[in-house]
Amino acid sequence: MSYTDSSGDKHNESLTITPSNTTTDNFSAMSIDDATHQSVDYGPIEREKLGDPLLPHLASHGQVNNDSQPKSLARGMLAWHVNLISLGGIIGSCYFLGVGITFNAMGAVPVLIGYFLAGVAVFGVMQSFAELLVNLPRHGSFIAYNREFLGDALTTAIGWCFWLNWVMYVPSECLAFATFMNTYYTIPFKNKAWSDFVWGSICLVLLTTINLFKVKCFGYVESINATLKILVIAFFAIVALFIWFGVIGDKVHPFTDERVGFIGSKIITQGEGTMAHRLFPNGYLCMVTYLIIVLVNFQGSEIVGLSAAETQNPEKNIPNACKQVAIRIIIVYLIPILLITLIVPYDKVPKTDSVFAFALTSYGLKWAGKIFTFITLVSAFSCANSGLYGTVRSIYGLSKEGLAPKFLSTLNKFNSPRNAILFTLSFIWIVFLFGFLSQNLGVFGSNASSLYEYLLNISGFFGTIMWIGIIVSQIIFRIKMKRRGYNPKSDIVAHAMFYPYLHIFSIVLQTVGLFSLLFTKTGWTIFAAASAIFLSIVFIFLILQKCGKISTNAVYAEDEVLFDMKYPQKTYFGVDHVNLLDKDKLLVQDPEIH
């Protein structure tokens, strides 16, 4: 490596960075031979051209893996896999069944506003995630970024809570899968509830098989599922539009008592009282109190980001997929919900059945119910599959960063995290059995069913915390870049759109959603329980770390990039030059800690 000193003379140097044993990231140790001054700064682009000369600086956080054994996740996800999954991969049974609950509780206009605001918040999350994924490629996904920018304690809590989020949610989708399978064939047990158990178990076995094999299998399965869901939603939108125009339907509309014709705003504005009361029948505050429930419908959007380490050409495909989240929000959520509000009164919407099937059958399309029963079945399996994939990658990321047992980052011959999958599935089975015994058999009494529902609500709380963590990490990433003398506009690629306004709005909205739980009848207990779990993990980590029971020395693959490696400090505290042979100055403290 050559450089020019302050006198204009050109020198050559060999640069070696000695591994540091500290885990606090406050100091970096350097030893440089045959150099007297330093007055040149290498930006991220130049550093990549030079082959990342400071690559050994990874040792300050851990060490680079140069073993011949496969230590990295396989890049088996194709571009079209990622694009389809980003559009429809995480649409679960909660979407087809849960929209009716929020619609009934909020009213037509509030539910539209609520889903729009939640969509904007999620779009902000994905913009932040994409910027981090492209500029700092890491196998640990959001876990790695949280650790680098939020610290070990908070990262441990966020990571384990995200893992708990899906461990509690995946079994509910398996039980939903069983319920819909029973509509096609009920296994002849004396107690029909055992048919649910068998179908749910089959679902879990299929999930295990798919996730243990090559990630390409997961990509193909989820792409097919996503295609089916998108096609059915598009079909509903087209049919609902024809109903609204009066082309499809019986001679008399079921909700207007008028002859077939253009519905217009008749349904959305029907009722008594002022126009404001008819448009907001349950008041304005419901948009806040039900915000967290609406946000749950978007959970799983982060799966695209979690797949970055297993995606081919991620620097191109991941940003594209994250940008498509905006398209998905419009196509999958806003347009179908708008059409529902135009053809079905909010107070007629069923709370337990699919509002999509109800809307079409109400207008004489009796066969539509079977289509939506099937697609809800597919959605339940798909969401469980994506959820298992995501939660396994989170626990794998924790293990990679030294925040979970090392054996959880072991890969099998397909380069899939086998131990993390089996470890996660063991807990999913426990929750599945608890859910089945409490809800289907009533073994633990009536209160057990309510407890299971609390667990599901707590999972939504944890998912929102994880989203906030992603945005905060990206904001700190930008701040640290500026402090080190870099310009984010020129020194990073795949810039997050509408930064920082969109991201601040997203954080505020999600925070309001979390605290709104305190003002609902059962929400405050959910808030208290989730907060207690989160803080307990933080305190347990700090205690174990203080006792020396936790080692956060991590091992990184060659294609992983840390912030300190790519964006070193450009100046040395305002000094024009530093004698790098001065032994007293070999240990340089990071100026950002002052």
Automatic annotation (TrEMBL):
Record-level Gene Ontology MF annotations: amino acid transmembrane transporter activity
Regions of compositional bias (Polar residues) in chain numbering: 14-23
Localization in the cell: Membrane
Spans traversing the lipid bilayer: 78-101, 113-137, 197-215, 227-247, 279-298, 325-346, 371-392, 420-438, 458-477, 498-518, 524-544
Disordered as annotated region, ranges: 1-23
Bilayer disposition of the protein: Multi-pass membrane protein
Domain Amino acid permease/ SLC12A residue range list: 81-546
Protein name: Amino acid permease family protein
